[in-house]
Structures are given as structure tokens and as C-alpha cells.
């Protein structure tokens, strides 16, 4: 068996993972080959990349003195997922071998956490920073904030080739094998309940944990007007065609209990033991069995999503059905044709129905759970969409009038002499989802809004100077 390194998340320490270590030992792994790592996550000046560089030095030293043998496996939690990805892709970019074979990610914040905004607040400094001279890991939380440029850039380094080329990444058969397990059970403790939101484990949203991300660019600089159907230039999946990263959503785990496979969740025995079984299955997985694991884990996630289709969930009587709804995360970045950020823009979701205002209100009032603007760079927005309500409410509203979901953009002029569009400050549209299942499945996978997943969309806008701004 391979050695195992365990990496914690923000505001945590290795002491939280002694139970996980004991579970691994009880299942045949040698205690001397299980290493619990510690790193500063509450120092305001420490970035995720800083930790990854230091981790590289420490691991190299351990390999050199044979404290750690390669290849080894790694289990990470929450922010530890970003640290591990930063370290892995950094080695790939330097042309150095990656000594990790299996990367098991427990509720990783691959695409942020809505709690980062609370963590950076004064309340966060009082609650979380009490034992660290009121430091709360400012730089780490900047990276963790929804729609951060750090997450965007990291995904384009290790998961997506935004040029549309065929650049390879560090993951997949023959390379590092990632596995992602997350929960969708809200916190039950009284104080923690205030941060719960449907489709999340109390801290990380299900789509934000999933590494199976897609991305594309919409070039509005060539739009012929608001009624123009735009095309999307897809970004290439670096793991290779057909490679799916195993992803499992469990109904009985929150952000804390996802790290405790030996802990009974109080649900039926099969569900309670599922976390343990998935971790052990990942640790035993080979390159040849990777696709089969991805397929079997998908059935686990679909079974969890099915719990949200009804009005109540008998197996979890204290949890509202909406917490098991499948969601989708949609992250946009707007830039002009000079590459500069556009910070004051509005993304509109609508259908082809004549009354566009009514269907926009229907979508934003029933389906769109949250829209977050990044506090550091307002050209980044994060939209959180309830897929269950999209299907059951939006498409079935007004006698099934809405048959597809379209997206467009409008932007405020930066001044009296410069504007982004010729008329109405708006451009064309792109259809991103259909009510009809076969039509939806026939869409290009890069452009399709997929359940339990994040989608990165770069929107390029024309920057126009008033015609009087230059003339002979």
C-alpha cells in the first residue's frame, strides 16, 4: 500500500484528522506511513501559493530522507484541495514529476465558498481570529471567495485550456488520479445553521467542490444586435476526451462529518457506511479502473439528487428536501476587447417567450439562489442556480411557455465618451439549457449547464469611442 499524506483546510489543524488516521490504520494501512500535515492558514499575509511552495520543499526533504516514499496518496479537506492542486500543477509546469498517485478530496473548495465573505468580515475576525491576534487568513480567504481570480486562473492552469488547444494537465489515467467526495447535509448546530444554503454542506456548495468544470468564451464584439444567436468557443478539458473525475455527493454528511468515515451519521447503515467505502475504493483504484469508479460514483450522486424531487425526505426527517436539490454554478468574467475588466455589467437569464421581463423575473425569483460579485474584482460574478426548480418551476410556469434558458449581457457605459455596445447597452444571447431532455443532452457538453458542476464563462465586450472622439 502507498503512504498517505493528509492535508487540512482553512482555520483547521492536523489534530482534526486523528480519527481519519485511525480509520485508515483499522483498514490495513500502516500508521508509520500516514502523515498529518500542518500549515499556516490564519496568517493574513500567507497565500495558497505560499503554502504550496513550502509544502513542495518539505515533501522533497521527506522523500530524500525516506520518511515518505513515492508514489504516495494524499487526502485533503476543504481549502487543502486548492493547496494540493497548486502544488501539483506547479510541479507539472516546472517539468517535475508529481509524486502523488491518488488525490482524494473531501468537500474541497475548488470553486470557492460563500462563507469566505463572512470570514473576512469583522464578525469573522472576532469569532475565528480570537486565538490568532485577530488574523483570519485574509489572503487565503481572498482566494476562497466566490468567483475569485485565483480559482479562475488555477482552473485554466490544471483543468481547462482556454485557448481551445490540446494542452495536457496533471490529472487522469497514467498521471495523478483525483477523486472528490462531498456532502449536501446542512449543519444542525444552532449557531451554524445561519450559514446553511440548499445544495451545500454548510460551507462548500456541491458544484463548487466538483472538479469536472467546463468553460467557454462568448465574443460579443462581433454581435449584430440583441436578437443575434451567439456562438461559444469551448475551452479544452485538459484531462483528455471522455475522462471524468469521480465525484460523489452524500446526503448524510456536512462539511465536518465528511472527514469522519467511522462516524455514524444516524441514517440507514448503507448510507452511513458509504463514505468509508468510497474512500477505501479510491485508495484501491488503478488507472484501468478509474472510469468505472467515476460511473459508479455518478449513480451515488444521482441517488442523492433524487431525494430532493419530493416534498419531504423520510430518511432525513429533520432536513428539508430543497437541501438535496441539484444545483449549478455559473461564473462569468467580463472584459473588453483590450483585455481590461468590465466591472459594471448585468447578466440576464431569459427564455424565448415574448414577455422577456416576466420570464426574467420568474427565473431570478424562483431559480437563481444567489448572485455574488467578487469584492476584489467586480468583473467576476458567481450565479448559483437551482436545477430542480429550473425544471419544476421555470419550465412549467405559465403552462410550459418557457422551453429554454438563454443568457445575455448588458453593460453600463464607463463614461460619456465610451460605451460597450452601439444601442441599448446590450448584445446577443446564447442558449445554455433546454426543457426537453433529449435536446438538452444533444447540446455540446462544453456549453451545457451540467448538474452539480461549475461553468466558467468569459464574455468579451466591444469598447467603442464616440464617433466624435477622433476625426480628420
General description of the model:
The chain has 472 residues and is α/β, with parallel strands linked by helices. It contains 14 helices and 19 strands. The chain has helices at 18-26, 48-64, 80-93, 115-119, 122-128, 138-144, 149-158, 206-209, 269-284, 290-306, 356-366, 387-394, 397-400, 437-441, and strands spanning 4-7, 34-36, 72-77, 100-106, 160-161, 177-183, 214-219, 232-234, 236-237, 247-250, 327-336, 345-350, 368-373, 380-386, 404-411, 418-419, 426-434, 454-461, 464-465. The strands form 5 sheets. Strands 2-1-3-4-6-10 form a 6-stranded parallel sheet, sandwiched between helices. It has a 6-stranded mixed sheet with strand order 8-7-18-11-14-13. Helix 3 (80-93) packs across helix 7 (149-158) and helix 11 packs across helix 12 (387-394). It is globular and about 75 Å long. Residues 120-135 have low confidence and may be disordered.
Q: Care to give the gist of this entry?
A:
This protein is an alpha/beta fold and 472 residues long. It has helices spanning 18-26, 48-64, 80-93, 115-119, 122-128, 138-144, 149-158, 206-209, 269-284, 290-306, 356-366, 387-394, 397-400, 437-441, and strands spanning 4-7, 34-36, 72-77, 100-106, 160-161, 177-183, 214-219, 232-234, 236-237, 247-250, 327-336, 345-350, 368-373, 380-386, 404-411, 418-419, 426-434, 454-461, 464-465. The model is unreliable at 120-135 (pLDDT under 50).
Amino acid at each position: 500500500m502507498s503512504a498517505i499524506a493528509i492535508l487540512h483546510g482553512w482555520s483547521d489543524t492536523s489534530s482534526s484528522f486523528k480519527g481519519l488516521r485511525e480509520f485508515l490504520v483499522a483498514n490495513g494501512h500502516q500508521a508509520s506511513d500516514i502523515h498529518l500535515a500542518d500549515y499556516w492558514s490564519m496568517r493574513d499575509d500567507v497565500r495558497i501559493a505560499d503554502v504550496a511552495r513550502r509544502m513542495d520543499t518539505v515533501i522533497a526533504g521527506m522523500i530524500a530522507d525516506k520518511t515518505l516514499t513515492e508514489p504516495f496518496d494524499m487526502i485533503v479537506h476543504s481549502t487543502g484541495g486548492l493547496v494540493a492542486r497548486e502544488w501539483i500543477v506547479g510541479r507539472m509546469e516546472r517539468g517535475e514529476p508529481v509524486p502523488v498517485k491518488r488525490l482524494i478530496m473531501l468537500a474541497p473548495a475548488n470553486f470557492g465558498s460563500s462563507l469566505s465573505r463572512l470570514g473576512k468580515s469583522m464578525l469573522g475576525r472576532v469569532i475565528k481570529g480570537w486565538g490568532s491576534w485577530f488574523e483570519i487568513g485574509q489572503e487565503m480567504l481572498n482566494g476562497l471567495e466566490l468567483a475569485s481570480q485565483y480559482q479562475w486562473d488555477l482552473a485554466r492552469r490544471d483543468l481547462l485550456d482556454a485557448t481551445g488547444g490540446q494542452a495536457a494537465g496533471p490529472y487522469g489515467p497514467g498521471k495523478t488520479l483525483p477523486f472528490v467526495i462531498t456532502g449536501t447535509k446542512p449543519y444542525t448546530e444552532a449557531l451554524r445553521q445561519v450559514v446553511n444554503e440548499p445544495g451545500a454542506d454548510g460551507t462548500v456548495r456541491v458544484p463548487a467542490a466538483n472538479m469536472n468544470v467546463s468553460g467557454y468564451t462568448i465574443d460579443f464584439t462581433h454581435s449584430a444586435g440583441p436578437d443575434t444567436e451567439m456562438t461559444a468557443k469551448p475551452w479544452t478539458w485538459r484531462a483528455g476526451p471522455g475522462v471524468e473525475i469521480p465525484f460523489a455527493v452524500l446526503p448524510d454528511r456536512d462539511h465536518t462529518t465528511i472527514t469522519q468515515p467511522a462516524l455514524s451519521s444516524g441514517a440507514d447503515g448503507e448510507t452511513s457506511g458509504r463514505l468509508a467505502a468510497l474512500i477505501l475504493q479510491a485508495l484501491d483504484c488503478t488507472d484501468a479502473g478509474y472510469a468505472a469508479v467515476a460511473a459508479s460514483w455518478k449513480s451515488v450522486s444521482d441517488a442523492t439528487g433524487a431525494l430532493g424531487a419530493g416534498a419531504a425526505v423520510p430518511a432525513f426527517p429533520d432536513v428539508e428536501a430543497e437541501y438535496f436539490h441539484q444545483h449549478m454554478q455559473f461564473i462569468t468574467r467580463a472584459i473588453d476587447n483590450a483585455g481590461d475588466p468590465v466591472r459594471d455589467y448585468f447578466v440576464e437569464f431569459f427564455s424565448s417567450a415574448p414577455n422577456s421581463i416576466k420570464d426574467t423575473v420568474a427565473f431570478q425569483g424562483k431559480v437563481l439562489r444567489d448572485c455574488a460579485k467578487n469584492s476584489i474584482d467586480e468583473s467576476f460574478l458567481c450565479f448559483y442556480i437551482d436545477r430542480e426548480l429550473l425544471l419544476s418551476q421555470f419550465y412549467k410556469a405559465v403552462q410550459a411557455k418557457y422551453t429554454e434558458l438563454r443568457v445575455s449581457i448588458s453593460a453600463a457605459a464607463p463614461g460619456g465618451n465610451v460605451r460597450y455596445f452601439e444601442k441599448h447597452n446590450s448584445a446577443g444571447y446564447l442558449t445554455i439549457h433546454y426543457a426537453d431532455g433529449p435536446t438538452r443532452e444533444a447540446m455540446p457538453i462544453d456549453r451545457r449547464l451540467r448538474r452539480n458542476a461549475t461553468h466558467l464563462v468569459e464574455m468579451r465586450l466591444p469598447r467603442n469611442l464616440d464617433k466624435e472622439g477622433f476625426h480628420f
